[in-house]
Amino acid sequence: MDAARSARARWTRVAATTRARTRARATTRAAATRTSTRAQIFRFANSTPRATRETRETRARAGATTAPRDLDSDATPELTRAERACACAAAAAAACAAASAARAATPPLATVAVAIAAYAVARAVFVERRYAEALVSPREAADADGEFLDVDGVEVHYKRARRANAKRFIECMHGFGANASSWTTSDTMRRASEALDAEVVAHDSCGFGLTARPRDVKKYTRASDAKACRAIAREVGGDAAARSLTLMGHSLGAVGAALAAAQGGVDYVVLVAPAIIGGKLRKNDAGDDAALSLPTFVRVAFAAVGAAAATAAWCLTCAVKPFLILLLRKLVRSKEFWTKGLRAAIDPSRVDAMASDWIDGYRKPSVVRDWDVGMFRVVLASVVAASSPREIWRDAMARARATTQPSTLEREDAVNALVESGAKILIVHGENDVIVPASNSRTLAKLLNCELRILPKCGHMPHEESPEAFIDVLRDFIS
């Protein structure tokens, strides 16, 4: 009996040791697979092996910066043998199911088509899982000079060009689909810092770059971005009374810069190819007062109609969410998509000067977890800035019962926000801009009675295409 118990105990220990070794090997293989996938899909400076936070801070103190080099998300990750076997099994099962459902002789061609479709779907599922495993956190993806600031519960990523005892503080806001690299890849931030004796900061708007992707859809609006802009100016800029404050916004970022300026304390506003379409100056609030004079039940009735329409738009947008996300993944992962898009946005004479790290800077945020969900929330915020139908109705009823008109910030009224700011305004536009025509800025300059500078042989991104000329214009305006 003792011998039998001893043998059982020995075999139990052997089995436990074997299971532990098997689990350890499985964990090691899983880690190796994730590392291999990251190496296949996302190859850039801080990726594999991953630089630690301490290493990045050490590099930053040493004055070194890293750039997203050789980013390649076009490379579809290679599936393991087990995953390919599962995809084949799914294809065989689908073909058998199709044949059984027909209860008759199924045409061979139809069976093959079903099997191919099932294999493609199964393979796509495995590929997406591998992509998801390769994604990293914003802090892991950040360059050595990247910094983060908590703004109202959202970690906002920003970069800055430091300058001791700077006389000015400049905050830069990027356009749609871009990020802070829009101001760094052409060395615009450093040039502006040296030319104007200024500390220059550029941050990523919510839904873009390496800024966190919160669930609250209201965080993705231009008004929320304007609040983040001023928060960074307060926290990073230091003593605002000791130096002048300049806000620069490119394209859609110009709307955020205008709204941020309406909060006061801004000396200069620079709008670069501003996507501020239309708008008019409010000379009085007679129309607004007339609306407030209506009986409350009438305003509630109108608000209910608007809320019903907004709810329908919200539901329709959410219904197509899977298709939008699949489309975003297909486009954003493609280097060709970004290359063609950027070449179409800039002047043809500047195409040859477009460096690869310029494209990689735009693509790098796609390595961050939930980047696609964040982009969907950006789209949803542009349709209806609400996280649920209940929120839509609550906000509509609150506005209907309000006794005062919403502010320019709440209305996202960029034109009147610029007037209210009292800041000196400059508009810079490329002569050959095909995204936002220069004629739009001419109209806006007349409306605001401000200075307008048209840069020749330049497209939609003057600060990236012609950084020298852009800085010269900036120096003349601010100095």
**First and last CA, distance:** 97 Å
Helices, by number, come to 20
Kindly state the number of beta strands.
8
Largest sheet: 8 strands, mixed
Q: Report helical residue fraction.
A: 40-55%
Residue-averaged pLDDT: 81
Shape, per Cα inertia axes: globular
Topology as a string of helices (H) and strands (E): HHHHHEEEHEHEHEHHHHHHHHHEHEHH
User: Which structural class best describes the helix and strand composition?
Assistant: alpha/beta
Strand fraction = 5-15%
Radius of gyration: 28 Å
Low-confidence stretches: 44-71
Strand order of the largest sheet: 1-2-4-3-5-6-7-8
Give a short synopsis of this structure.
The protein is an alpha/beta fold and 479 residues long.
Question: Can you give a write-up of this model?
Answer:
There is one protein chain. This protein has helices at 2-41, 53-61, 81-102, 108-134, 138-141, 188-196, 222-237, 253-261, 286-292, 296-319, 321-332, 335-345, 356-363, 371-383, 389-401, 408-411, 414-421, 438-448, 462-465, 467-478; strands spanning 147-151, 154-161, 168-173, 198-203, 244-250, 268-272, 424-430, 451-455. It is α/β, with parallel strands linked by helices. Strands 1-2-4-3-5-6-7-8 form an eight-stranded mixed beta sheet, with helices on both faces. The longest helix has 40 residues, at 2-41. The protein starts with a helix and ends with a helix. The model is unreliable at 44-71 (pLDDT under 50).
